[in-house]
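Before relying on records like the one below, remember that each one covers exactly one chain. Contacts with other chains, cofactors or solvent are not represented anywhere in the record.
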Amino acid sequence: MVPLAIAFLVTALLYASVGFGGGSTYTALLALAEVDYRVLPLLSLACNLVVVAGSTVRFARARVTPWGRALLLTAIAAPAAFLGGLTPIAKQGFLALLGTSLLFTALTMMLPVAKRPEGEGEGEGERGRVARYAPLAALPLGYISGLVGIGGGIFLAPLLHLVRWDSARAIAATASLFILVNSLFGLAGQVLKGGEGRFAAAVDLGLPLLIAVAIGGQIGSLLALRYLPQRWIRWGTGALTAFVGGRLLLNL
């Protein structure tokens, strides 16, 4: 348990430093530790909630969250996350989907962040018109979130950057809220699907891991604010995610 808790702390530290929860990597680490795959999303989504709750509040206090559009995305994704949590899935399919998601996550972490050019307002240009259709992506992202125990923000944020949906801080705030709500609804679906026995197993295993991600999340936020360049953090997080995802797929 101690090595696993340390791995969770490091994962939370890295992901929190770039505004994400780390649910996909938590799930993969648990799978590599041979924890019952049916319990994995419960633990990962709970860890997501712990990591992103603080950042969501901080963004709200700083008044950078674009509430109208952010709530539209989460409102579309949340019911899908709940349905994903309720959906039964075989072990091999679950692990294959998770490993693929991790590799895609690593790719998105390593891509450069597109910035809106100075003077370009919301909705201007071809990318601005494409940005209006961003809510359509929320539905599949929400479903995958609940199904495999991720928040979905790691996929949403690069998409929003690509179409210059808003400023970098507003996108980070939106991704944080997206992860929080999806994790909550996905967790509700997973609890209903698994019943009391599976929930009890998750609780027995989960407390040390929740403490670890709470500590790691706070350290990650501090590092991001004061010490490490964002590029270094993103590349380090992407490398960790690619390694874990590759290991998971090789073990299928």
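The longest helix spans residues 168-226.
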